[in-house]
Amino acid sequence: MLTGRQLADWPRYLSAGVLVMVRISGLMVFAPMFSSAAIAPRIKAGFVIAITVLLAPVVGTLPHARVELDMASLLGELAVGLTFGFALSLILETLMFAGQMLGMEFSFSLVNLMDPNSNIQTPVLGQLLSWLGLLVLIGAGLDRSLLAAVMRSFAVVPVGQAVMKAETGVALAAMTGGVFLAGLQLAAPVIAAALTVEIVVALVGKLSPQLPVMVVSIPLKTLASYAVLIGSLAVWPAWIERHFSALLDQAAKLVAS
């Protein structure tokens, strides 16, 4: 129930609610799970409004909060949400890139599916690994960790005080470059197994020219790649959790800097 002081300061709480909504809305653009096209827009809107109603009376009274609706405060709040969402979306881009590299080893380089989130053709293994990543994030409760980190950001960076710096953009660009290295790390065991099979078959083909190398190498490479991939999937959930937490910590540092 609202007190008399809260009723008297309702314009301040309304302005704080708008700033909170802008920050949370920026998160919904890129963040894994929350940006999924499978979630209806009205559900996303209801979720943002519910969080806004809960947080606005609190964040508006925090020390150093500048509850003013101007261009600087709106852009700053949007930048905070986009920083969190974009940084954490890199985990799915890493899995997508790893799936694209693995697809070449499995002879799936021409097999693509329509991604409902981006409306572009994506590798079938990339889609599979992205779904695996989402299942791991939900099963580990990292979606709640993301929301908790965003809520803590209101204490670290009060509403109206956020500023998008050039250093933040440079850091995000550097994190984007890390997608290629991380994807290569995930796909490295399968690539190494496929390369080993190709070398062995090539050597056997040199010793026995009658051996149909092209006929034998493709199924052997595919079977070896599947075996290594299935074995390596046991360590993937821990890798996904660790890198998601690292990205979340890095995003929090960028916002607080």
Question: What topology does this entry show?
Answer:
Elements: H1 4-8, H2 10-30, H3 41-59, H4 71-105, E1 112-114, E2 121-123, H5 124-139, H6 142-156, H7 166-207, H8 213-232, H9 236-256
Antiparallel strand pairs: 1-2
Molecular structure report:
The radius of gyration is 24 Å and the shape is elongated. The protein has 9 helices and 2 strands. 31% of the residues are buried. It has one domain (4-256). The model has no long low-confidence stretch (mean pLDDT 81). The chain has 257 residues and is mostly helical.
Question: Features of this protein?
Answer:
257 residues; mainly alpha; two-stranded antiparallel ribbon; 9 helices; 2 strands; 75% helix; elongated
Number of strands: 2
Which strand-content bin applies to the residues?
under 5%
Number of continuous helical runs: 9
Fraction of helical residues: over 70%
> Please, how many domains?
1
Describe the sheet with the most strands. Answer: 2 strands, antiparallel
Q: What structural category do the secondary elements indicate? A: mainly alpha
Terminal Cα separation, in Å?
A: 37 Å
In N-to-C order, the SSE pattern is: HHHHEEHHHHH
Overall geometry comes to elongated
Compute the CA-based radius of gyration.
Answer: 24 Å
Low-pLDDT runs of 5+ residues are none
What is the overall pLDDT average?
A: 81
Q: Largest sheet, order of strands side by side?
A: 1-2
